[in-house]
Amino acid sequence: VQLVESGGGLVQPGGSLSLSCSLSGAIGITSDIKWARQAPGKGLEWVSTIYRDGTTHYQGSLQGRFTVSRDNTKNMVSLQMVKLKPEDTAVYYCTSGDMEYWGKGTLVTVSS
Fold first, then answer.
1. What is the pLDDT of residues 28-86, one digit of tens each?
2. Paired residues of 81 in beta bridges
3. N or C: which end of the chain has fewer CB within 10 A?
């Protein structure tokens, strides 16, 4: 089982960024996938979930700015983030739906 995040980086406030999570092994098109994040000095925070049927849920404060999607042909889940704020700075992780398996994370820094 492997989840590999990519796409993090430095972006200015108000900017956009798209993260990807590549899935392999037992995690694939039949799996629910979550995104979580951890800001510097803070605890882990759930961001969103995309279920195997494509249904999505978001942390309330992120609804409208974050969009999660999946491409089952590529075993890939994406997190599109727009109107980014400095408080969105964090390491972003994709996880299996039961949060048993995690990627290593990708750092998103929102700063001018």
1. 777 899 999 999 999 999 999 999 999 999 999 898 999 999 998 899 999 999 999 99
2. 17, 66
3. C
Looking at residue 26, the DSSP 8-state letter turns out to be T
Helices (H) then strands (E): counts for the chain: 0, 10
Q: In what order do the strands lie in the sheet with 17-24?
A: 2-6, 17-24, 76-81, 66-71
Under 8 Å between Cβ of 70 and 63: no
Q: What is the DSSP letter of 99?
A: S
The Cβ of residue 66 has, within 10 Å, a number of other Cβ atoms equal to 21
Closest CA to 65 of 17, 20, 103: 17
Burial of residue 92, with CB atoms counted within 10 A of its CB: 0-12 exposed, 13-18 middle, 19 or more buried: buried
Confirm if 38 and 44 have CB atoms less than 8 A apart. yes
